Amino acid sequence: MTKPFSMRELTARVRAVMRRMEKAVVDQDILRQADIMLDRSGRVVKVAGRQVDLTPSEFELLAILMAAPGRAFSRLELLDRLQGTAFEGYERTIDVHIRTCAPKLSRMPPTRVM
Fold first, then answer.
1. Which helix (H) or strand (E) is 12 found in, with range?
2. In this predicted structure, what is the pLDDT of residue 97?
3. 33 in helix, strand or coil?
4. Measured between alpha carbons, how far is 34 from 105 in angstroms, rounded to an integer?
5. Which residue has the higher pLDDT, 110 or 59?
């Protein structure tokens, strides 16, 4: 804004920014990609309308990946975001989480091999 400006214009601009910020916060609670819907506040994941049970680590990993579609993460970066810097473990832990999470997110129910 350039000076001089009226208080009315300043108030209107501040309100507009606040409305945009509220909308952005609401949109971040529910993430959608293809037929997957993730509700962070309710900690619910649905695939094609069917609710899927995920472990807390699988849920957080999916939320991280869905929040940045198309972005490539290193194993170490995912592990850091998932467990924090205090956690010292193997980078391959992420592979296990993805391997157990992927079948749960497929449209077809997993089949058991006997």
1. helix 7-29
2. 87
3. strand
4. 11
5. 59
Task: Answer yes or no: is pLDDT of 59 > 90.
Answer: yes
Distance from C-alpha of 14 to C-alpha of 61, rounded to nearest angstrom: 35
Q: Which residue has the tokens 């091999």?
A: 113
* Predicted model pTM: 0.66
Four-residue CA torsion sign, 56, 60, 61, 62: positive
Backbone angles phi, psi at 36, to 5 degrees: -105, 130
Q: Is the pLDDT of residue 27 over 60?
A: no
Contact of 104 with 58, CB cutoff 8 Å: yes
Output the six-digit token pair for 24: 């952005």
Nearest to 24 by CA among 67, 79, 59, 80: 67
